[in-house]
Amino acid sequence: MKIGVLSLQGAFLEHEKMLQRLGIDTVEVRQRKDLDAIDGIVLPGGESTVQGQLLRELDMLEPLRQKIQAGLPVLATCAGLILLAEHIADDPTTHLATLPITVKRNAYGRQLSSFSTAADVGRLKDFPLVFIRAPYIADVNKGAEDETSTDAVQVLVRVDGKIVGVRTANQIGLAFHPELTDDTRLHEAFVAMVKSKN
User: Fold this and answer.
1) I want to staple 7 with a disulfide (CB 3.0 to 4.6 A). Which of 12, 71, 121, 150 is the partner?
2) Catalytic (active site) residue 78
3) Longest dimension (CA), the chain
């Protein structure tokens, strides 16, 4: 099993180190052909606009979108969450648009641009949450909450009433950075998702 980490820009090395701690082989995804060798992918934090632009320039956006739509497991953090979102508040631009949510970019403003807290994330108790110029999920798009649908969006965690983590059948989207903590449980959950799909 190999998990790709999108390595065009942003904090991809921390995800690689976290996965390697779990004994997982990683592949730095830098060009289209790298997508052929992976069983799952991590979309890291960074600058979503730059990452989206590079995905387009390198002719990776559509092939990656098709793979995710076909069931490729994906873990997306911060900017990666924005890449996945079907809608971005106050912005007509979208990127992969595979996750039926609306995100609000840089949603916490200057005073709370970076902060840490802890909360239960799904079944994971007291998980450390690190936010850096974080978005949040403003809306789970209509119809996506239908629990009978395989694409149903499950809310994993809220902070101050705002949704900051969701999951569908093959996508985990987080506004925070588990790779910047010592807690491997979310990456373990992602690895379990990848194994279940293969």
Assistant:
1) 12
2) yes
3) 43
